[in-house]
């Protein structure tokens, strides 16, 4: 008598062998000899062909058929398709270390995990995943590696300010405590404060930024 694992393997092989079935988007689960088919096909005839292929396999007691017909013009929003598009997006973005991030998709909800060197990499991955059609939400469990905080953080912030027109970093104070950066002082506009905060987050090893910069127009 076949185990559920053996039966699942045989049904998947039969679906792959049948030329009238595109098995790529069909999932197979087996419990006590009952086979559940799920996923998507492009037409009703293919749906029926998949069911017949499963019934041909010896040991199948019953079939729960949950395959949906989805036309080619409809958006590809199955979980595995969403995951594939997210991975592609990650591989195209030089700010995302795609080889260090794991992607899980369940009913449109994306969970990201892994370890990266800087916060901006985690933030960029979260933003990229959220832009994919079909995504209903994103949970980021990505950890930032606790590297020694660079001693040149103040220089990085000052350099970021210098790249902007009419900005002055002289009024910003910077203090570090382990992997935490504390920003203080005064700037003349909100966007100056944002430049300082983003520069601090971009420093390798920073896991927390406390922004206490005051915006003053006087």
TrEMBL record:
Keywords assigned by UniProt, alphabetized: Aminotransferase, Signal, Transferase
Keyword match Signal: yes
Family matches, as Gene3D superfamilies: 3.30.1340.30
InterPro entries named among the record's database cross-references: BON_dom, Lipoprotein_DolP, Transpt-assoc_nodulatn_dom_bac
Limits of the BON domain: 3-71, 78-146, 149-217
Protein name per the record: Ornithine aminotransferase
Keyword 4Fe-4S applies: no
Gene Ontology terms for molecular function: transaminase activity
SMART domains registered for this protein in UniProt: BON (SM00749)
């Amino acid at each position: 008598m076949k185990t559920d694992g053996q039966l699942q393997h045989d049904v998947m092989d039969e679906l792959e062998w049948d030329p009238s079935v595109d098995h790529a988007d069909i999932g197979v689960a087996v419990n006590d000899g009952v086979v559940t088919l799920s996923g998507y096909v492009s037409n009703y005839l293919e749906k029926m062909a998949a069911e017949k292929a499963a019934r041909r396999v010896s040991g199948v007691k019953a079939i729960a058929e949950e395959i949906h017909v989805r036309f080619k013009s409809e958006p590809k929003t199955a979980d595995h398709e969403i995951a594939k598009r997210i991975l592609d997006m990650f591989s195209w973005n030089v700010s995302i270390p795609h080889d260090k991030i794991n992607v899980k998709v369940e009913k449109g909800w994306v969970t990201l995990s892994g370890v990266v060197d800087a916060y901006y990499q985690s933030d960029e991955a979260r933003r990229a995943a959220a832009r994919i059609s079909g995504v209903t939400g994103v949970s980021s469990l990505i950890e930032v590696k606790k590297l020694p905080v660079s001693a040149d953080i103040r220089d990085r912030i000052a350099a970021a300010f210098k790249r902007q027109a009419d900005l002055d970093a002289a009024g910003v104070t910077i203090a570090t405590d382990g992997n935490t950066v504390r920003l203080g002082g005064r700037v003349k506009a909100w966007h100056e404060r944002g430049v300082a905060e983003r520069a601090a987050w971009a420093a390798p090893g920073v896991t927390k930024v406390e922004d206490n910069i005051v915006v003053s127009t006087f």
